[in-house]
Amino acid sequence: MEKNHNVSRRQFLTYTLTGVGGFMAAGVVMPMVRFAVDPLLQADAADDMVDVAAVDELTEVPQAYDLEYEQDQGWHIEQVSETVWLFLEGDEVVALSSVCTHLGCTVNWGTDPDNPEQFFCPCHLGRFERDGNNVPGTPPTEPLHRYPLEVRDGRVFLGTNAQPQI
């Protein structure tokens, strides 16, 4: 026996509007859920610290070290290599980014003959003090960024995201 499955116009519109409303609600709710959950998922990535150098190797003169790590781009894993300036400020280890805050060029320590005790960006003549603060009157408008760091068992471990100095 075949049953007659006729759907009235009212039922059809009810089903259609319920389906469309459900999709619209999901479109509104899903970004909120992702906003709430994403920081929890990112917390593990933020805790990844990379072993860069032994504290015994550091001096009061900034030295360049390579910070190498893998970064998940979503569709592939990318090998990243950044240059970090490490030095001692008394007993404290300092890790500064080598990226100029003006236009992203690479800064070097002591390469400006007129200012040998400063970081220097040769592209636009940007200068930074030893502590990373930008020299007034030069193109950079903010200090060099600092890497989060930990010292464990005589080794310096750096986070992979340099942060602006406050």
UniProtKB/TrEMBL annotation:
Residues 82-158 form the Rieske domain. SUPFAM superfamilies: ISP domain. InterPro entries: Rieske_2Fe-2S, Rieske_2Fe-2S_sf, Rieske_Fe-S_prot, TAT_signal. Keywords: 2Fe-2S, Disulfide bond, Electron transport, Iron, Iron-sulfur, Membrane, Metal-binding, Oxidoreductase, Transmembrane, Transmembrane helix, Transport. GO terms for molecular function: 2 iron, 2 sulfur cluster binding; metal ion binding; monooxygenase activity; oxidoreductase activity, acting on paired donors, with incorporation or reduction of molecular oxygen. The chain crosses the membrane at residues 12-33. Belongs to the Rieske iron-sulfur protein family. PANTHER family: CYTOCHROME B-C1 COMPLEX SUBUNIT RIESKE, MITOCHONDRIAL. The main subunits of the menaquinol:cytochrome c complex are a Rieske-type iron-sulfur protein (QcrA), a cytochrome b (QcrB) and a cytochrome c (QcrC). Component of the menaquinol:cytochrome c reductase complex. The Rieske protein is a high potential 2Fe-2S protein. This is Menaquinol:cytochrome c reductase iron-sulfur subunit. It comes from Geomicrobium halophilum. The lineage of its organism: Bacteria, Bacillati, Bacillota, Bacilli, Bacillales.
